[in-house]
Amino acid sequence: MGYIIAMAGKGGTGKTTIASLIVRILKEKKLGSVLAVDADPNSNLAETLGLKAKESIGEVLDDIAMHPDKVPAGMSKDRFIEYRVQTAILEAEGFDLLTMGKPEGPGCYCYVNNVLRAVLARLAKEYDYIVIDNEAGLEHLSRRTTRSADALIVVSDASKAGLKSAKRINELAKELEIKIEKRLLIINRADLPTDKLILKELGLEYLGSLPDDENIIKISQNGNSLFSLNNDAESLKALREIGERLWLGK
Description:
By secondary structure, this protein is of the alpha/beta class. It has a single domain, classed as 3-Layer(aba) Sandwich (Rossmann fold). Helices cover 40% and strands 20% of the residues. It has 10 helices and 8 strands. The chain has an 8-stranded mixed sheet, with helices on both faces. Strand 7, helix 8 and strand 8 form a beta-alpha-beta unit. Helix 1 crosses helix 10. The radius of gyration is 18 Å and the shape is globular. 40% of the residues are buried.
């Protein structure tokens, strides 16, 4: 089974940025096959990875709903959807990308989520690492986009509001009985150590902090890929150290 890393956090914490950097590190380390999953209907994971999404699950479902005649005779609709989603996976250099998206027509958003969940259960057997960039906030947990993960990485800033949100994400994951091996916390854009007493109350294992990086801000503003970030950038070096200590070594 592949090692699943699920990202979570409130909006604006840099969750997608860190997810992209994790994909970059896994690719550079050549630790095996990697699948990046954009499970946020409003996210831009593909852009931060320097890609243009091939076709989203939402678009696949819209197309089949509008053209049911495309389902081959003798093949069930569910099997055809699975096949189409498989072909929607974009193969990049060193990793693949699957985008969730959302239906533009009358299709149910919950159905897109259910399809993604079913596909992930199968793909977990085909990839060594799966990095899931979930929707910001708590909704994705309630919908159980991720039913299990080897590592849940909650991204927060150092504010009281941010840490309160991180605590609530962890509590909800427990309430929903989502199977998680490691519950981890990264403090983003914080140069100073955060109060360890406050961190202890969150119920998350504190990995460390990533410094504020003007280069990442510039890259994001220009809509460029995070693969263009200088190899010796402080934020990237800090994340590599965390990775060596924890999820990269499994």
